[in-house]
């Protein structure tokens, strides 16, 4: 069942009257907002919406949980600023708290860092129905436990986020993407390493499962030419230059995870099978040395994928004809873990999942009555 | 004592200190106004020894405090009287550097600056640079989420800690996070950072490294008022520039720096240091833009340099400002409040008014880009009531910071020093929850008892 709330008091009330509940936003990551226990109340927080504070001179912003990311992006863009962690699925309607709870950063995090580097404050309702806050609204703050960071990736299982404060940055005025093709993802690894360690601050550094390397540059019209020449010299292979609306559209499609949606796999290509599950989308954190074995394993399973943030993360489409158990085992074999964003019913986290006694003890304090689903 | 006997069985030899003379060295940290004598100090040389020591403390209900270099300015590594002090300085190895992943794995006693030294061979550096970076340790940086002059773009310590192995307060060893820049599940690593030792001891730390900047330009602009320097900071932000650092020093702080390390700063009411960093083309373009901005900002004089020695001297003056005020007065209190960047001018005016009203001199050094103030409150401890008056002024300044929408601490932590001020920022429910989290991780409140939160043992919950 779904309950809707439009105030913090209503969230507190809902937490206190529900034995089991899970906050949801726009449900753009259905695997994270799905519940297995039919008695669990899904708390729709989209009604908690709106920017409560934004002063461009502060480079900070505070907004309610259900505020759509696009609303934030538009407000920032009017002042030449942006969310440097580049949250994905904005066009699909992703909300601020949904993004924080899912712990998602996008390709643009290559430049300045991910969501955990830009969250500075949080307000949430804990498992006892208390409205609490951590952090603040200033960019630098060492007072109290870092509850804002704890909420990053909390999957709605540690509390109901009601408001978030973020640090923001000025956005590059102009962008250009260089594309170069390698024989395989692994063949591009050396180039990624050189770029990761190199002097150019890249806006994005992505690699598709077909071995297409995408190097996004940002600057102003004056510096972009120089950056282009230097990046091309580093890549050393013939580069295609992509500019303008085509370039913007390409990264928008990347943020929408379009190429990893289920409509390309065998199950859904069959018209008579249109209702069949079309596979799962999974995010897999990694380090560059883990790229070759992961790419090999994913390719062997017929899983289309893309590496992002200079090979710090893989996004993969796991085909419907492969089981989640197999995926979980493959990841664990490689010492990796993954987070599902959509697909068939199952746990949100697979493979080697961090946690342990510290996690258990913190969780026991935040949700002593087990109102939120297990992680 | 039971704990001494238990520690005696660990085979530590001369690395178990129990005599008053040997323990005296550990009785305080960088905040010398507070002292306490532990019953024993353990100079740990391995994770196993840290685990065994913590287990002994847990078994006997003895509070323990981990200590790196002891540079905390908030009393973070002040011992608990009668407790155990666990010194981590000897755990100072850089265990590995992975240039492909741009990470390093460190023991907690590694000195901050040694990380960048070790990484330099790979063209990499460790970004967080507290002013004490030549002596402070990574474990302490992690526990107190240390900042530095370059947080504006690079963030604080927690932004550069990817994973860690920690000894929980009952001696259990566990791993948080991992080597990737992307996380999975709740950010337990981020939660452990800045917890002021209340969740246990990090014994192995994975940090992220950044490429050494190809080009750097450091501007030094002199102004005839603090507000003019503050306005220049606002103009730089409004123009869409993102320097790595923006620092302001007032006349008294400049005087102190000149009296000690002689950075050859121009005479001024306020000095603005702005540093640009990046690839050579971007820094060249930003230099041109910044020159134009400062030219119309009312600066009395301005210079900029890319010369490493000249830059080092500028930063030496800035980073030694705290110790340099020792030339101006026998004692001082350094505060660490934060205000929203746009409130800087107002905050400085209020500091000036409070200082005048109290009749106490205050030197100002601050991370202007972050709104992080460091008022240095000068006094003579030999004078009756001077410390109390200085502390009252410090408290008034912190209240003002919170009133303007800021924080009581930007980077030094709460420690013992600002514990009483935490309720200015957090509601009773916020503090109750923090206390509950603390006691869920550490029911006996053994780990760094008395820092940040008021322990149950002292009465009121959290």
Brief overview, please?
The complex is a heterodimer of chains A (375) and B (462). Chain A is built from 13 helices and 19 strands.
Task: Kindly describe this structure.
The complex is a heterodimer of chains A (375) and B (462). Chain A has 13 helices and 19 strands. Mean pLDDT of chain A is 94; it is low at 264-276. In chain A, the strands form 4 sheets. In chain A, strands 14-11-13-12-16-17-15-18-19 form a 9-stranded antiparallel β-sheet. A 5-stranded antiparallel β-sheet of chain A has the order 4-5-9-7-8. Chain A has a 3-stranded parallel β-sheet with strand order 1-3-2, covered by helices on one side. With 375 residues, chain A is an alpha+beta fold. Chain A is globular. In chain A, helix 2 (30-33) links the parallel strand 2 (21-24) and strand 3. Helices cover 29% and strands 25% of the residues of chain A. Chain B has 462 residues and is α+β, with helices and mostly antiparallel strands. Chain B contains 16 helices and 18 strands. In chain B, strands 15-12-14-13-17-18-16 form a 7-stranded antiparallel β-sheet, sandwiched between helices. A 5-stranded antiparallel β-sheet of chain B has the order 5-6-10-8-9. Chain B has a 4-stranded mixed β-sheet with strand order 1-2-4-3, covered by helices on one side. In chain B, helix 8 (226-238) runs antiparallel to helix 13 and helix 13 (344-358) runs antiparallel to helix 14. The longest helix of chain B has 18 residues, at 386-403. Chain B is globular and about 70 Å long. Classes of the chains: A alpha+beta (375), B alpha+beta (462). The interface between A and B is large, with 85 and 98 residues.
């Amino acid at each position: 069942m779904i309950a809707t709330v439009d105030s913090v008091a209503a969230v507190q009330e809902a937490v206190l009257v529900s034995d089991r509940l899970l906050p949801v936003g726009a449900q753009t990551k259905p695997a994270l907002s799905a519940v297995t226990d039919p008695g669990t109340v899904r708390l729709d927080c989209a009604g908690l919406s709106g920017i409560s504070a934004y002063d461009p001179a502060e480079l900070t912003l505070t907004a309610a949980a259900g505020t759509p990311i696009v609303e934030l992006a538009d407000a920032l863009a009017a002042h030449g600023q942006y969310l440097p962690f580049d949250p994905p699925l904005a066009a699909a309607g992703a909300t601020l708290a949904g993004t924080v709870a899912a712990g998602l950063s996008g390709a643009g995090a290559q430049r300045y860092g991910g969501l955990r580097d830009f969250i500075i404050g949080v307000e949430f309702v804990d498992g006892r129905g208390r409205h609490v806050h951590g952090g603040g609204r200033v960019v630098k703050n060492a007072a109290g436990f870092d509850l804002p960071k704890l909420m990053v990736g909390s999957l709605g299982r540690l509390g109901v986020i009601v408001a978030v404060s973020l640090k923001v940055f000025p956005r590059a005025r102009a962008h250009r993407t260089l594309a170069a093709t390698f024989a395989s993802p692994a063949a591009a690894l050396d180039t990624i390493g050189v770029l990761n360690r190199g002097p150019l601050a890249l806006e994005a550094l992505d690699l598709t499962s077909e071995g297409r390397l995408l190097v996004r540059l940002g600057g102003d019209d004056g510096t972009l030419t120089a950056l282009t020449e230097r990046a091309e010299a580093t890549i050393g292979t013939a580069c295609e230059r992509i500019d303008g609306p085509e370039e913007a559209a390409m990264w928008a499609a990347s943020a929408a995870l379009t190429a990893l949606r289920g409509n390309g796999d065998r199950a859904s290509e069959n018209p008579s099978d249109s209702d069949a599950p079309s596979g799962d989308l999974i995010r897999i954190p990694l380090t560059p040395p883990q790229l070759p074995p992961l790419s090999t394993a994913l390719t062997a399973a017929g899983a289309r994928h893309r590496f992002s943030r200079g090979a710090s993360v893989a996004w993969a489409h796991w085909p419907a004809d492969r089981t989640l158990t197999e995926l979980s085992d493959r990841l664990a074999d490689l010492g990796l873990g993954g987070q599902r964003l959509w697909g068939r019913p199952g746990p949100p986290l697979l493979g080697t999942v961090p946690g342990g006694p510290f996690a258990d003890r913190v969780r026991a304090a935040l949700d002593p009555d087990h109102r939120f689903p297990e992680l | 004592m039971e704990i001494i006997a238990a520690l005696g069985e660990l085979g530590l030899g001369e690395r178990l200190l129990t005599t008053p003379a040997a323990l005296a060295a550990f009785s305080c940290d960088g905040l010398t106004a507070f002292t306490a004598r532990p019953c024993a100090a353990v100079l740990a040389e391995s994770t196993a020894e840290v685990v065994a020591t913590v287990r002994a403390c847990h078994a006997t209900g003895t509070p323990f405090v981990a200590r790196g270099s002891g540079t905390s300015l908030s009393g973070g590594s002040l011992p608990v009287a009668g407790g155990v002090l666990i010194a981590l300085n000897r755990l100072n190895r850089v265990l590995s550097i992975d240039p492909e992943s741009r990470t390093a794995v460190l023991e907690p006693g590694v000195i901050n600056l040694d990380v960048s030294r070790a990484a330099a061979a790979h063209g990499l550096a460790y970004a967080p640079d507290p002013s004490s970076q030549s002596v402070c340790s990574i474990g302490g940086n992690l526990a107190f989420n240390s900042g530095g002059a370059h947080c504006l773009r690079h963030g604080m310590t927690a932004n550069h800690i990817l994973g860690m192995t920690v000894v929980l307060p009952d001696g259990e060893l566990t791993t948080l996070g991992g080597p990737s820049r992307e996380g999975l599940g709740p950010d337990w690593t981020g939660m452990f950072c800045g917890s002021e030792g209340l969740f246990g001891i990090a014994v192995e730390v994975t940090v992220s490294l950044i490429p050494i900047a190809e080009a750097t330009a450091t501007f030094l602009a002199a102004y005839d008022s603090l507000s003019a320097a503050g306005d220049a900071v606002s103009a730089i932000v409004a123009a869409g520039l993102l320097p790595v650092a923006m620092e302001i020093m007032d006349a008294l702080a400049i005087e102190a720096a000149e009296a000690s390390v002689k950075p050859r700063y121009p005479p001024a009411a306020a000095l603005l240091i702005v540093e640009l960093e990046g690839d050579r083309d971007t820094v060249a373009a930003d230099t041109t833009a910044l020159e134009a901005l400062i030219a119309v900002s009312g600066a009395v004089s301005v210079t900029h340099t890319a010369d490493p020695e000249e830059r080092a001297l500028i930063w030496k003056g800035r980073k030694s400002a705290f110790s340099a005020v020792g030339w101006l007065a026998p004692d001082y209190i350094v505060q660490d409040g934060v205000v929203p960047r746009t409130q800087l001018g107002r905050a400085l005016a209020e500091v000036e008014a409070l200082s005048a009203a109290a009749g106490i001199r205050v030197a100002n050094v601050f991370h202007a880009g972050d709104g992080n103030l460091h008022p240095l409150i000068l006094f003579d401890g030999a004078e009756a009531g001077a410390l109390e008056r200085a502390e009252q002024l410090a408290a008034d300044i912190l209240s003002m910071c919170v009133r303007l929408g800021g924080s009581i601490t930007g980077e030094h932590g709460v420690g013992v020093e600002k514990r009483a001020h935490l309720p200015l920022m957090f509601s009773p429910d916020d503090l109750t929850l923090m206390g509950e989290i603390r006691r869920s991780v550490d029911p006996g409140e053994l780990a760094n008892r008395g820092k940040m939160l008021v322990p149950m043992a002292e009465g009121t919950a959290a």
